[in-house]
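Can you give me the bound-state structure? Components:
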Amino acid sequence: MNFKRLTLPEIINYCKENGFIFQSSEIYDGMQAIYDYGHYGCLLKQNVKHLWQKEMIQKHNNIVGIDSAIIMHPNIWKASGHVDNFDDLMIDNKDSKKRYRVDILIEEFAEKNNKPEIIEIMNEYIKNEDLDGLYNIIIENNICCPISKTCNWTKVRHFNLMFNFKDIDDNTIYLRPETAQGIYVNFLNIQRSTHQKIPFGIAQIGKAFRNEIIARQFTFRMREFEQMEMQFFINPGEDEKYFEYWKEERMNWYINILGIPREKLRFKPHEKLAHYAKAAVDIEYEFPFGFKEIEGIHARTDFDLSNHERMSKKNLHILNPENNEKFIPHIVETSCGCDRIILMLLSEFIQKNENRFIFKLSEELAPIKYAILPLMKKEGLTEVALDIYNNLKNKYMCSYDDSGSIGKRYVRNDIVGTPYCITVDYQTLEDNSVTIRYRDTTEQKRISIDELY
Ligand code: ATP
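Here's the bound-state model for the whole set.
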């Protein structure tokens, strides 16, 4: 059968219809770039997080976990450079009153009009902080606002992406825009309490917040999202070695563990390094809207720990037992967005033909592993089916469903990616066997109930 991948509008629709992802605050007309995960979405997300944690913590004796607070001391964000440097370049259209990210506005124009040279000039201006140059690109190329269709623009300005609010003592408090800083400020606590020696890593999954200027592409760019970050603490001088090591490790995770084809992934070195980075590369996936970042691997040197030492006036050196000298470790980080990974899985593994949707997730990723279905809602069949459900649910995420025709129930399970449907029928009552139906092939096999446990 000829199956096709979905377009982005089809994915958005699929997610709402089938309980994966909803627009947040929908009954109040929604919040831009904020989303809620429904039953199947949050189970899928848990599985992604579990696979990441397994890869990082379970498979590495020298990587440990942390769950740090979202709200931290405001000086952390001064030391990290986020208060001064964590911004995007924006421009407002005076007629529509809409705000745009300058790089995205120019990039979209250049791609649509096949003018790649404009992107090169733009990158040069961004590198040199030439805001007038960027403004001139927009004016000279007559790049208009898609809403008002006019070129009536303000000047290009910086816009800090951190959300902030006042606490009861009138201090400005920030919502963290990355989880990494919670790791840095705890690194000595963690290192001492888990007896780790360089090189070692600390891994964290948690929410991050960015007041993104342009909200689009569904969960690709959210204002509240979840990151999975691992900070690897190394000897100075080993930056390149571990940068290369983690680059390959992370690429292999997408291919071997999540099952993404290699040709849909690529490395993209950064045009402009972030304020903290010595080397940086993105892993990009080919979404329905083109190749875009899913993970960044950054060599951050001792930038963060040195700045925290300076700002906090606490000693963040550790001892090198080989030469008895104290030093500040360097850091290589791997940082990916859980929500972007989910969008990648939706883009890659949902397939459709004219009358059938099938979400071809691996067994480890599928929200539900087994659906237990009595052929009919009849006495005898439902008891046996419930008995199987009650046995399997202790080990696997299962569902029990006795409503509607069996064909419809198979279709419902294909849609949400359940790899196995177990059907109890009249033969079950005679010989203790059930049929197991495989989602991807629709093949059905008769097996003994005992084989399920
Ligand atoms: P972009 O260039 O797309 O804005 P970034 O380079 O700022 O991303 P990082 O700061 O490197 O992103 O963050 C690490 C990861 O966190 C990204 O690779 C991405 O998967 C995720 N991420 C960052 N911003 C968002 C967002 N607004 N919504 C969803 N995920 C995000």
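A couple of observations. The mean pLDDT is 94. The longest helix spans residues 39-58.
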